[in-house]
Automatic annotation (TrEMBL):
<dbReference type="GO" id="GO:0004017">
    <property type="term" value="F:AMP kinase activity"/>
</dbReference>
<dbReference type="GO" id="GO:0005634">
    <property type="term" value="C:nucleus"/>
</dbReference>
<dbReference type="GO" id="GO:0005524">
    <property type="term" value="F:ATP binding"/>
</dbReference>
<keyword id="KW-0698">rRNA processing</keyword>
<keyword id="KW-0418">Kinase</keyword>
<keyword id="KW-0808">Transferase</keyword>
<dbReference type="InterPro" id="IPR020618">
    <property type="entry name" value="Adenyl_kinase_AK6"/>
</dbReference>
<feature type="binding site">
    <location>
        <position position="114"/>
    </location>
    <ligand>
        <name>ATP</name>
    </ligand>
</feature>
<keyword id="KW-0963">Cytoplasm</keyword>
<keyword id="KW-0547">Nucleotide-binding</keyword>
<keyword id="KW-0378">Hydrolase</keyword>
<feature type="region of interest" description="NMPbind">
    <location>
        <begin position="38"/>
        <end position="61"/>
    </location>
</feature>
<comment type="similarity">
    <text>Belongs to the adenylate kinase family. AK6 subfamily.</text>
</comment>
<feature type="region of interest" description="LID">
    <location>
        <begin position="113"/>
        <end position="123"/>
    </location>
</feature>
<feature type="binding site">
    <location>
        <position position="19"/>
    </location>
    <ligand>
        <name>ATP</name>
    </ligand>
</feature>
<comment type="function">
    <text>Broad-specificity nucleoside monophosphate (NMP) kinase that catalyzes the reversible transfer of the terminal phosphate group between nucleoside triphosphates and monophosphates. Has also ATPase activity. Involved in the late cytoplasmic maturation steps of the 40S ribosomal particles, specifically 18S rRNA maturation. While NMP activity is not required for ribosome maturation, ATPase activity is. Associates transiently with small ribosomal subunit protein uS11. ATP hydrolysis breaks the interaction with uS11.</text>
</comment>
<keyword id="KW-0067">ATP-binding</keyword>
Amino acid sequence: MSNSKGPVIVITGTPGTGKSTHAQLVVDESPIPLQHINVGEWVKEKRLYEEYDEEWQSYTVDEDKLLDELEPLVTTGGVILDWHTCEMFPERWADLVVVLRCDHSKLWDRLEKRGYPLKKIQENNEAEIMQVVLDEARSSYAPEIVVELQSENTEDLETNVGRIVAWISAWKEDHS
């Protein structure tokens, strides 16, 4: 959905892969102004959910409300959407979809440190092993805009942010 204000980038991956950290660093280093939207936080702040699931300790998102809320911002451009899933976002929205991946044992440790319940850790770990988010991205968007990046350490983080910022610079050149 290229526009004059900036690209729309979706950063997705299993919880614990570093989406929010990546998104904020990209915003900080981007050659053009970008707005980072942590979709999970947005859902809570704007009450874009149907209910809270105690067992999973998460909200059941009202997807229609969420998409209606995001549409004007995405249409304007210059946005990074950071969320653990991506297939609900219309294909026309995304200029780049970054899927962050992490070795399941490292992911397990990260989720334990967050205090996730065991059932939630197990489900997210299994999703990472089965590359659920990557498969969703590949089946929802054109292959040339989906990029898989490892996110296991600080070196990966720095390399990934550099690659995304370079992509934004190229986007800026193409749209000036």
